[in-house]
Design goal:
The complex is a heterodimer. Chain A is of the alpha+beta class. Chain A is 23% helix and 28% strand. Chain B is 22% helix and 34% strand. In chain B, the strands form 2 sheets. Chain B has a 6-stranded antiparallel sheet with strand order 1-2-8-11-10-9. A 5-stranded antiparallel sheet of chain B has the order 4-5-6-3-7. The chains are: A alpha+beta, B alpha+beta.
Chain lengths: 1001, 197
């Protein structure tokens, strides 16, 4: 069915053909293909255009390190996602893929003009080109750059998929299910340890999935892998997770794993999450991530058809795909020879193997000759030709002076390169582990780590299959022993036959025939960074690899430099005349591969984005048509519009109801703390500024709480229920903070006091009844409390029953009207609310929301901590100076209050403001000035903290913090606002019923 | 449920309202069952270590000394949740006796007993995948908990008390206003587990 498919072999399921589209054209592949392998099987190498120069690009790798083959995938509707790597996107029936970074089409792309204008796009071109004129940046340059640059298009609709999370604890977590990881899992698993083995690929096996020649313990790699996986699956203590990428390694062996659950399915089930983020805490970690092949850097090394030799081997042995009919191999590492041999043995024609080394193992040369492959040792590649696919490669002998001799051109349709292998140290680096430079291998290897981890196998430079298997086994055993498991002694070492040698020599950018200043030898194909860009950065004075990275963009974006960092470093180090370790490596940061926002969000979307705390009476508010506002995590009714009412009209009506009849308000969110014990009063004496000793049971008092600095932190009414029991209320937002602060002082400062705290915020449903008719509403329902004004005056508290359920009744008011706060156990809140509404029917009762509550209290000049205070307001500033019980030996903030700057003149004090124009409502936050005629910037002497239109007073009112405000009462201040300046008179804060007569009804 | 109490003067039906009662009971065979815990009388007890023996005698249950330990006898249960803190629960019928007895004791012994029956809601998660389900949003290793122990931890963003009541039986206790979040999330997790992917 596919032109470039081997007749047999590979791990694809030839019984399950699949249809997919790429850029609208229909293709065929098989179950088990990736998008990349299926495209290659159809002979399609051109898969995208590069980021900067829009050069045609092909598939370079067979894994998550892929820099080029980025595609958009869509399942229709909102299910579209850019920047998928075709090399890891598993094919499913009906997959719809499109290439990126081109217009109008992949094969004809206008942006390719950038390739000709390459001189304009050198390293740091953003910083150089767009500096002048400065005003052009925001309006011209940035929008154009943003629309032209960027990888792929962001989806425009909300993600319809859902995502999951999972926490796990285990003895041994093994990252990478290649030869090393499987071997480690087998030995750790046999010990009985709880093992988790993860691999980012669809199938466990790593390089074993691409291994055609070697045998393990007498079995083919495939047969050995099959039995090893079967053994692991038979162990109940081993969990094997495929399609799961270890994206980050955090403190104390906590690893983040992203499991792709349904992306490979044609029709994902509705209840299954698309991805699941695991957070695993492991006692021991084995990092068996293996190594990533390095490309060679030479002019025009980026044409479609040029790929890593190991990738070609994977496409052949794992997917049954022949990447070319006439293939040239260019390498300085033995492993590429193996790829050539496998291809030659499977019907591909290898035209030539070019090895930069003067000599290689004679066995390799003999093998090549036996297969009829021409070998050129001590030769290099100096260039390529071909527009949308490589057609020719230029090869030259290396001269002793480091240059090249006369070359020849060789026709080809694929060029496989290998510059050796880079151990994958990404996760190890996340642990802040020390990387050590290995002179012989010319790579960074894991050194000392702070975490309980091991790095066996190729990831530690211990290359080769037999080494991987035996190192994995030792690591698995060591990990098992560390977690206290028994390991059987004297297991035979693994025996591997037919493995190709694994030696090589690292390269810089290769010498070429042409002018190195006009050729493009790509180091980072994703960001179009060339060798000369890196040299230019060094010439322009950059010395640190971190700066070179940012200046050139080498190693950025989706692949995070997995194929480019080491080549870039080698070139930079050479240009600087330093060794690579002294130039350093850029820091690896999580995530290892691109991870969706959905995976991080997990269940936290829609209704579960945040907890929405609802009061016991929430459903009654909904029935009454409430408009809600969030207050912390709580949702509170802001106002209750009746049909046709605007917010302003509804709030005005609610205010009138309270002033004239009776309103009911859900105050359940107020923080409540029960302070109990023989020393309860003494404890409150030390916490609050006022005195509690003489407060009789059955009475309430308003309390102010400061920080040690003397500034107001919280306030609330506190009722004394019994000699040793107080019912403390706090602000809604301050509840948890105040509880924590009190508990802190109790435990650390005054452990001698016999007093304890219990949070009772949610024990009680609280309904505030405010208005002249409030008593009449509750009277028929309350039992056991004499509600008459003399028996139960303002600032009283009593326990009784309402409608037969337990009641704590407070006579308090935050509106200035006769007020009661009905506290009942939360499970009765809704029923009691309904009972009160029923009882108040003939009395004009109506619910009111937080907006009306705010206006009513502002009319009375009651402050709200956090609105009229900003963390720098003292009790004196707020007009509560007389509350401070200075005779108390101590309380929190007592010393702070006498700090020189807190008693100095010129402090901002809470005052009232009445605008000359009674209809003008000041903006909250507006600044106050004494004289608006002054030159800007003029001195600001305060700001508006609360401002409303008051229906009760028929005009606007405001509270403000004003320098020496108390002395300025009767004077004018000016309030500049957008487009106008208002004039206001400084007044007392008590706008309404300053004598407080209405409280005493 | 309607509980009549003395002084009943209202002819209205004063019904109890529990946010979890509107949560559909989730029965996922082979996964777990999710059920609200019936309301019981709950108290927060705090006292010094030196008073523990005396209080234990008074309330008829040996207050556990180690954090996380759970002791249950004769319809009463005590969970040690702090060095000086226990969560007590009992059937409603016994709650006034308990309060009276502790109230008497508090005249001579410093302690704090506060009713929190309505502060919290409970959810029971029972079934072969109960622990697996909790691990979807709970960072604590609930599988490693011995039976009859409890711990304070997080479930998603909610503070919860997890009690392991049996091999495959857990109870979550959390603030009333957090319980809908926890319950509906458990339902999502249950359906996810039932999808078996």
């Amino acid at each position: 069915m596919n032109k470039f498919r081997t007749p047999v072999g590979g791990r694809i399921d030839r019984g399950t053909p699949l249809t997919f589209t790429f850029n609208g054209k229909t293709y065929h592949g098989y179950q088990g293909d990736t998008l990349a392998s299926a495209l290659l099987a159809n002979g399609e190498h051109l898969v995208g255009r590069s980021f900067k120069y829009h050069r045609p690009r092909g598939v370079m790798t067979a894994g998550s390190e892929e820099p080029n083959a980025l595609v958009g995938l869509t399942r229709g509707g909102a299910r579209e996602e850019p920047n998928n790597r075709a090399t890891v996107a598993e094919l499913y029936e009906g997959m719809c893929a499109t290439s990126q970074n081109h217009w109008p089409s992949l094969s004809f792309d206008i942006g390719a003009i950038n390739d000709r204008l390459g001189m304009l796009f050198t390293a740091g071109f953003y910083y150089k080109t767009f500096m002048w004129p400065k005003t052009f940046w925001n309006k011209v340059y940035e929008p154009i750059i943003r629309s032209a640059a960027g990888l792929g298009k962001s989806p425009t609709q909300p993600d319809p998929d859902h995502y999951a999370s999972r926490y796990e604890h285990c003895d041994v977590l093994i990252v990478g299910a290649g030869a090393t990881g499987i071997s480690a899992a087998l030995s750790a698993g046999r010990s009985g340890a709880h093992v988790i083995l993860v691999d980012e690929q669809a199938e466990a096996g790593g390089s074993l999935l691409s291994e055609a020649s070697a045998t393990i313990d007498g079995k083919t790699a495939t047969a050995w892998l099959e039995s090893a996986i079967a053994s692991l699956k038979a162990m109940p203590n081993v969990t094997l997770l495929t399609r799961t990428t270890a994206i980050g390694y955090y403190h104390y062996n906590m690893l983040g794993l992203c499991q792709r659950v349904t992306d490979h399915l044609t029709a994902p089930p509705a209840d299954a999450p698309r991805e699941r983020l695991w957070r695993v805490r492991a006692k021991q970690v084995v990092l068996a991530q293996g190594a990533i092949e390095k490309p060679l850097v030479f002019p025009d090394n980026d044409r479609p058809g040029i790929m890593l030799a190991g990738a070609a081997r994977t496409y052949l042995n794992r997917y049954g795909v022949i990447v070319g009919r006439r293939v040239v191999v260019a390498t300085s590492h033995d492993s590429a020879w193996g790829a050539a041999f496998d291809l030659a043995n499977s019907g591909g024609r290898i035209a030539m193997i070019v090895d930069l080394r003067k000599s290689v193992s004679p066995e390799l040369v003999a093998n090549a000759q036996a297969l009829g492959i021409e070998t050129l040792l001590g030769w290099t590649v100096s260039g390529t030709a071909g527009r949308k696919r490589i057609s020719k490669v230029r090869v030259n002998p290396l001269t002793s002076g480091g240059g090249v001799g006369a070359g020849r051109s060789v026709n080809c349709d694929a060029l496989l390169t290998s510059g050796g292998w880079t151990p994958s140290v990404h996760l190890f680096s996340h642990t802040k582990g020390e990387l050590t430079w290995n002179e012989t291998l010319e790579c960074f290897l894991p050194g000392k780590s702070l975490e309980a981890l091991q790095c066996p196998g190729a990831g530690a430079g211990d290359f080769g299959l037999v080494n991987a298997l035996n190192a994995g086994r030792s690591a698995g055993e060591a990990a098992a022993k560390t977690v206290g498991r028994q390991v059987a002694d004297a297991i035979d070492r693994y025996v591997v036959d037919g493995e190709i040698t694994f030696s090589g020599v690292s390269q810089r950018d290769l010498p070429g025939e042409g002018n190195p200043d006009t050729t493009k030898a790509f180091v980072d194909q994703q960001n179009d960074v060339t060798a000369k860009d890196i040299r230019l950065a060094v010439r322009e004075g950059f010395r640190s690899i971190e700066h070179i990275k940012r200046y050139t963009t080498n190693g950025m974006a989706t692949d995070q430099g997995k194929t480019s960092n080491i080549n870039g470093l080698a070139i930079a180090a050479e240009a600087l005349g330093k060794t690579p370790p002294s130039v350093g490596l850029t820091t690896f940061r999580p995530p290892y591969t691109p991870t969706t926002f959905g995976a991080f969000a997990g269940y936290r979307r829609g209704d579960h984005f945040e907890v929405t705390r609802k009061t016991p009476m929430d459903s009654a508010a909904v029935e009454a048509g409430a408009i809600f506002e969030p207050v912390g995590l709580w949702r509170r009714a802001l106002y209750f519009p009746r049909s046709g009412e605007t917010m302003h009209e509804a709030v005005a009506r609610e205010c009138r109801t309270v002033r004239e009849k009776v309103g009911i308000f859900d105050a359940s969110t107020l923080g409540k703390i029960e302070v109990v014990g023989p020393d309860a009063a003494e404890f409150l004496n030390r916490i609050y500024i006022n005195s509690w000793t003489k407060l009789a049971p059955g009475r309430c008092r308003y309390g102010l709480l400061l920080g040690e600095d003397g500034y107001i932190r919280d306030d609330g009414v506190i009722g004394r229920i019994a000699q040793d029991r107080f019912h403390v209320t706090t602000t809604t937002g301050g509840a948890a903070r105040v509880f924590g602060m009190m508990e802190d002082y109790r435990q650390t400062e005054w452990p001698d006091l016999d007093v304890w705290l219990t949070s009772t915020t949610e024990q009680w449903a609280v309904m505030a009844l405010n208005g002249p008719n409030a008593r009449k509403v509750i009277e028929p329902l309350v039992d056991g409390i004499d509600l008459s004004p003399n028996a139960f005056p303002h600032m009283s508290v009593a326990e009784g029953r309402i409608c037969g359920v337990p009641l704590r009744l407070f006579r308090v008011s935050f509106s200035g009207e006769l007020g009661f706060e009905v506290n009942v156990p939360s499970r009765y809140g809704l029923a009691i609310w309904r009972a009160l509404m029923e009882s108040g029917k003939g009395l004009g009762i109506s619910p009111y929301g937080t907006e009306a509550m705010h206006i009513l209290r502002a009319e009375k000049g009651y402050i709200i901590v956090g609105q009229d205070t900003d963390g720098t307001v003292t009790p004196q500033d707020a007009g509560y100076g007389r509350m401070v019980a200075t005779s108390k030996p101590d309380f929190v903030g007592k010393r702070g209050l006498v700090r020189p700057d807190l008693v100095a003149n010129g402090r901002r004090q809470v005052v009232g403001l009445l605008t000359t124009d009674p209809h003008a409502v000041l903006e909250e936050g507006a600044q106050l000035v004494a004289n608006p005629a002054r030159k800007i910037p003029m001195k600001m002497i305060g700001h508006v903290t609360s401002s409303y239109h008051s229906t009760t007073l028929g005009r606007s009112i405001a509270l403000a913090l004003l320098e020496n405000g108390n002395e300025l009462i009767g004077k004018k201040v000016y309030v500049p606002m957008p487009g106008r300046t208002e004039v206001a008179e400084v007044t007392s804060t008590e706008f309404y019923d300053p004598e407080g007569k209405r409280l005493e009804m | 449920m309607t509980r009549k109490a003395s002084g009943w003067r209202c002819d209205m039906n004063i019904a109890e309202n529990n946010p979890l009662s509107s949560l559909p009971t989730l029965l996922l065979s082979g996964v777990f069952e999710l059920m609200p815990v019936a309301t019981e009388a709950r108290f927060n007890l705090r006292a010094r270590h030196s008073s523990v023996a005396e209080i234990s005698r008074t309330i008829g249950i040996n207050l556990p000394a180690r954090m996380g330990d759970v002791v249950a006898t004769q319809g009463k249960r005590a969970i040690c949740v702090g060095p000086d803190e226990w969560l007590l629960s009992c059937e409603f019928e016994n709650s006034s006796d308990l309060m009276t007895a502790v109230g008497e004791l508090s005249r001579s012994t410093a302690l704090s007993l506060v009713e929190i029956t309505d502060r919290d809601c409970g959810l029971r998660v029972v079934g072969p995948k109960a622990a697996y389900a909790l691990k979807a949003a709970c960072p604590y290793d609930v599988e490693a908990m011995p039976q009859n122990t409890a711990t304070r931890t997080l479930f998603d963003q909610a503070d919860v008390l997890v009690v392991r009541e049996g091999e495959n039986s857990y109870r979550l206790q959390m603030l009333r206003s957090w319980s809908t979040h926890v319950g509906t999330l458990m339902a999502i997790i249950g359906r996810e587990i039932a999808a078996d992917l």
